[in-house]
Design goal:
By secondary structure, the protein is an alpha+beta fold. It is 18% helix and 27% strand. It has helices spanning 2-34, 180-183, and strands at 35-39, 54-58, 72-75, 113-119, 124-128, 131-134, 137-138, 156-161, 166-170, 186-187, 191-200, 206-207. The strands form two sheets. Strands 1, 2, 3, 4, 9, 10, 11 and 12 form an eight-stranded antiparallel beta sheet that branches. The N and C termini lie far apart (59 Å).
């Protein structure tokens, strides 16, 4: 009788370990290839995303489709975008007064950034009082922070053409966002995926 109970107990333990192992393996596969969680590290996407919020990032879709305007994406910025030693982001081309950074540095950073796609490949872009103009037309941007202030990246009225295969990224909190205006557009191959939902804190769960 005791032997039967011991065998039953061992069988249940093996079953539990197997289930936990499969669940862990499935979680790692999902996180590594399909969906990845990401924590908002700064105020650059306020009011859309607050510091400390968690979002889910779709890592698959951009393998088959291209990013679209207004998508919120996680990506690797150009090297120098997060240059803490100099305190300034690096541009891959000589800076022209009154113009956004036209080209990024050739290497990418290891840091993950989250911003909004505001300019697509081949488009002409400029920024006037924190508002984006594409091919001369001011864009409708209901998501931006209205009281974000105006810094040295606020007015850049000289147009640049976004290179083919590159995307121009900006934060919704324009006065508190170091973005493509400072370090240039981002190639598609550096984009990790699209943020599609928030899952933490509980009171802010929802889609983007």
């Amino acid at each position: 009788m005791a032997t039967t109970k011991q065998q039953s107990g061992r069988s249940s333990l093996i079953e539990l370990v197997t289930i936990v192992g499969l669940a862990l393996g499935l979680f790692l596969i999902i996180q590594g290839f399909l969906v990845k969680p990401f924590r908002i590290p700064s105020e650059s996407m306020v009011p859309t995303l607050e510091v400390g919020q968690r979002v889910l990032v779709d890592r698959v879709s951009f393998r088959f489709t291209d990013p679209e305007r207004d998508d919120v994406v996680v990506f690797k910025p150009p090297q120098g975008a997060d240059d803490e030693e100099s305190g300034e982001a690096r541009c891959g081309a000589p800076r022209v007064e009154g113009q956004v950074c036209a080209r990024p540095t050739p290497q990418r950073s290891d840091t993950n950034f989250i911003k909004r796609v505001v300019g697509l490949p081949g488009e002409r872009l400029k920024v006037i009082r924190n508002r984006v103009y594409i091919n001369g037309k001011r864009q409708s941007e209901p998501f931006i922070a209205r009281d974000s202030g105006c810094d040295d990246l606020c007015d850049l009225p000289r147009e640049v053409e976004i290179p083919r295969g590159y995307y121009f990224m900006m934060g919704d909190n324009r006065g508190a966002s170091l973005d493509s205006r400072a370090w240039g557009p981002v190639p598609k191959k550096w984009i990790i995926g699209q943020a599609f939902a928030t899952y933490w804190p509980p009171g802010q769960v929802g889609g983007l």
